[in-house]
């Protein structure tokens, strides 16, 4: 199969390309200079000319706070571009695997995992544009698209909270970390494997929650990183959200349920702590 991966230079896109190539797939991973996903004419021409079997959209405006100051740019990349890709796929025969986020939920008043069909309630510009991107994909290409929602993503390529904590742990530095947000750290390699699955599985459509299992807080994640790095977890102390004010609201609780995997005989992703232990063996600490 021929795969087109947008956003291949990012944390997830990098691992998606590695996983696909490792599985013997043909991969097209054009940089933005060759394919600007915000230009519908460019998207249509590229898809029509290269005729991929599967398009994987990893391109995203991910600066959650920056989106509050640049809402139009965030909308171009997160909401409009997925629609351009979906329409280009609809003109041919390609499937589309689109990556979305737990941020489409606010977490307000929530203490149980969100199912795939729960109503969304975004609480920031970033979250709203990502929700609109989902709607554009599912509304345009309902029979040949999969939206994979993920959360708290980290990997060996690019910057991440996990990489930053690993770097601080290696230098024996103390860290204050928020302990009032609950979610699921997800390793980009594990998610990339599910991208491969979703692209190959022609009967899989709609929304799937692709997150590592279990749940923790950013504080709990930081302590786990320190422990795995051989540092004293006591160097990490908890703090409330208002210790680090930010322009955009974050979901207070964004645990995602994964019941729909069973519809296709697949198991949910493994626990986040197991994935983290493997990931840290491959990651270079980052400051």
UniProtKB/TrEMBL annotation:
It comes from the Bacteria. Its EC number is 1.1.1.133. Keywords: NADP, Oxidoreductase. GO terms for cellular component: cytosol. Coiled coil: none annotated. Pathway: Carbohydrate biosynthesis; dTDP-L-rhamnose biosynthesis. Belongs to the dTDP-4-dehydrorhamnose reductase family. PANTHER family: DTDP-4-DEHYDRORHAMNOSE REDUCTASE, METHIONINE ADENOSYLTRANSFERASE 2 SUBUNIT BETA. Catalyzes the reduction of dTDP-6-deoxy-L-lyxo-4-hexulose to yield dTDP-L-rhamnose. This is dTDP-4-dehydrorhamnose reductase.
